[in-house]
Amino acid sequence: MTIADTDTARTHWTGTADAAERAQWDAVAEGVADQLAVDALARDRANAQPFAEKRLLQESGLTTLLDPAELGGGGAHWESAYRAVRIIARRDASIAQLLGYHYINSANIALIAPPAERGRWFRASIAERWLWGDSVNPVDPNLTLTEDGEGFRLDGFKRFSTGSGVGEALLVNAVVKGGDRDGEFAYLVLPFGHPGVELVDDWDHLGQRLSASNTVRYHDVRVKPAHVLGFGTDEPLQSFVTPGIQLVFANLYLGIAEGALEQARALTVARPNAWFLSGVPTYADDPFVRRLYGELVSRVAAVEALADVVGREFDLAIGRGGEVTAEDRADLAYRIAQLKVVSSDTAVDVANRVYEATGASSTASKVGLDLHWRNVRTHSLHDPVDYKKLEVGAHFLTGVVQPISLYT
After folding, report:
1. Is residue 224 within 8 Å of residue 150, measured between CB atoms?
2. What's CA 284's distance to the chain center, in Å?
3. What is the rounded distance in angstroms from the CA atom of residue 123 to the CA atom of residue 72?
4. Ranges of H-type helices in 319-361
5. How many angstroms from the chain centroid is the CA of residue 16?
6. What's the number of CA atoms in the CB half-sphere (13 Å) around residue 394?
């Protein structure tokens, strides 16, 4: 499909990933993950803005994985993108978050921009290898966007703006006040260093410390027409942003769980001796340790199987473009909510309970096993998983569909 075809098809994504595509991008992601693993704990403790890590993502080609091949992008599918997030999260969940949010933010070119503008945005993003950050926190509505001549003026602030500290492009959402577009939901893209945009380096949290999720303050920022990506409509395809980002979350949590298991296994196998009451030579032989891993590994495998299936379902749905219906979107959101529930609960439990097998020595700061728990515990609070459980339960019992928002 060409960019010109998107006037009717609405997006350049069609079909699903084949085995060769998955293998190709899995290998790229694994190479990046291996590099990040070398000093992930040290970088987490330094809590610096991840400029070097961002460049690693860009140089690997992962940042353009989803972009149109005809314009120099990877031409790959969402399943491959989600798998990349999962693989990197095993080693460095902060950088996996940067990448996952980038995929959703940059996808707004296809979902939001007018057809005639999509090529311009894609070409710039691909050629300059933009990493897309965001400033869209919907529970922090502290922006004022007012008409000013042909453009707008932007004032206020947003917290939890992932990628804002390092991204070349900053996606901003705000509701227009006054003028011909009063009440419309605007999607703006501001370049790094844009006049009046203040990046506040205040992200100092328990986990996800390198996600560059800073506060951004806007001081009488001039927004030109060229900075406007588009405006919100009731079109079902536009609302794929929310199930898309929830699917990022699920794969992020799954990757963290897999990483915690992998590190815990190595620690357990390396433990000398065994508990004196066990009657076995090593901790790896202890039946209680084996039972624990049997449970956790099986649960993670089940989440992985569901994540792979739902990733392909996302590709099939978004590939319908302008033909996708509200019912299609609701069905997809329901499936992703199911995955969000089990991935969140499983990852938090796994990252916590592996200590039962690795023992007191694994709590030493130099070991860094705590990084997995700190990361998943921090990000899993993004939006309450209990509300996802209510969403799934209500739909199962009565068929009710949650109203569309930036969380549902």
Report:
1. yes
2. 35
3. 8
4. 326-353, 355-358
5. 20
6. 12
Residues 140 and 3: their CA atoms lie apart, in Å, by 35
Per-residue pLDDT reduced to its tens digit, 271-305: 999 999 999 999 999 999 999 999 999 999 999 99
CA atoms within a 13 Å half-sphere pointing along the CA-CB vector of 206: 11
Backbone angles phi, psi at 114, to 5 degrees: -60, 150
Placement of tokens 């690795």 in the chain = 358
How many residues are present in the chain?
408
Name which of 156, 159, 55 is nearest 98 in CA terms.
55
For 98, the token pair is 């940067």
Closest CA to 58 of 108, 135, 128, 161: 128
Give the predicted TM-score (pTM) of the model.
Answer: 0.96
Sign of CA dihedral 176, 237, 110, 212: positive
Centre a 10 Å sphere on the Cβ of residue 205 and count the other Cβ atoms it contains: 15
Q: Which three-class secondary structure string do you get for 86-133? A: HHHHCCCHHHHHHHHHHHHHHHHHHHHCCHHHHHHHHHHHHHCCCCEE
Distance CA 335, CA 319 (A): 17
Say which amino acid occupies 181: R
Q: What is the pLDDT of residues 112-170, one digit of tens each?
A: 999 999 999 999 999 999 999 999 987 777 899 999 999 999 999 999 999 999 999 99
- E strands within 259-369? none
Rounded CA separation 118/113 (Å) = 6
Question: What residues pair up with 175 in beta bridges, in sequence order?
Answer: 185
Determine the Cα–Cα distance for residues 133 and 159; give it in Å rounded to an integer: 13
Give the separation between CA 374 and CA 377, rounded to whole angstroms.
5
Q: Give 161's DSSP letter.
A: E
